[in-house]
Amino acid sequence: MWQALAGYAVRGPVQGALLSFSTLLLALIFPPLVVVSNALVALIWLRLGPQKGLISVAVALLAGTFIASFSGNPVFPAALMLSFWLPVVLMAYLLRRTVSLNLALLAGAALALVGVLVTYLVIDDPAQSWQSMVQQIRAQTEAASAGTAINSSNEAANARVEAWLANAGTWMTGFSAATQFLVAASSLLLARVWQARMFNPGGLQKEFHALRFGLAAGAVGLFIVAASVFIENQMLTNLAIVVIVVFAFQGLAVLHAITAKLKMHVLVLVGIYAFLIMLAPDSVKVLGMLGLADTWVDFRSRVRVNKSDSQDI
Fold it and tell me: With a threshold of 0.90, does the pTM exceed it?
């Protein structure tokens, strides 16, 4: 189904605009569709080029503004679309120009890190701003659930939630930036999956297995993470959150490449993903540290097998 939609989207900028805008509207009901909408935009830029990509985005913006004009708030849809699409457009443009997945993802990472820095430069106390928002949402939730019975057996869980809510503001800036990067990066990879299946079977696998951000990015990432550990500073903590999520992609690439080199069955990889999901969010930290360590250790090069016996995963 999704492959068919991707094939329709690359027929032209208008078709692509129609699908990307429609899926973004549906994402208001089912949020994961944001990734599909972003991926369709990225695919148009990857396959049709920047000129038709700009036409597609412009058509979608005009359509969204026109429809929203009947509700009295024509600016909101345009702002919503740009906030989701601009990062993935930048990454797709760089990927098309450089044919380097490393550089494309690093550009998205740099954008997320700059977003954290700008937030702390523009807002006096981002943590307090986020905490106020969290408390408002909490108050609305409690009001909506008034009268609901509380199970005493969940007291420990409730205590953990209370502790989480009390400190949410201190890391929400980094969490928000990391989430935006995660959505953009996942969308770009999904677009490359569609593109590879239609025009270059097996191409994405080689790119992803070789994903490695390099020593310079690794050094910067390690410095930020180490500084956040030894220096008590909210901005460093939020920057470190972004770094860990970025290098988690390199950690995933290491797992994919090694399982492929060792000729493991695809179900092994499925099991690894299931295990990582069960351990989330701690698994993200593990993957991030694995990715950072791989910058210097290069785990993939240490696995030696006969190429003729390798199996694609």
Answer: no
**Are the beta carbons of 101 and 207 closer than 8 angstroms?**
yes
d(CA 199, CA 209): 19
CB 173 within 8 A of CB 116: yes
Residue 111 and residue 181 in contact, taking contact as beta carbons nearer than 8 Å: yes
Tokens of 104: 């494309």
pLDDT at 157 exceeding the cut of 70: no
The per-residue DSSP string of 62-87 comes to HHHHHHHHTTT--HHHHHHHHHHHHH
**pLDDT confidence of residue 128:** 80
| Helix, strand, coil distribution of the chain in percent, nearest 5 | 85, 0, 15
Looking up tokens 């973004």, which residue turns up?
24
Determine the pLDDT at residue 153.
Answer: 47
User: Exposed (0-12), middle (13-18) or buried (19+): which is 155, by Cβ within 10 Å?
Assistant: exposed
Residue 218 parent element (H or E): helix 215-230
Alpha-carbon distance values, 174 to 60, 177, 219, 237 (Å)? 30, 5, 19, 8
Strongest mean pLDDT among 16-30, 33-47, 57-71, 191-205: 33-47
DSSP 305: -
Residue 6 above 90 pLDDT? no
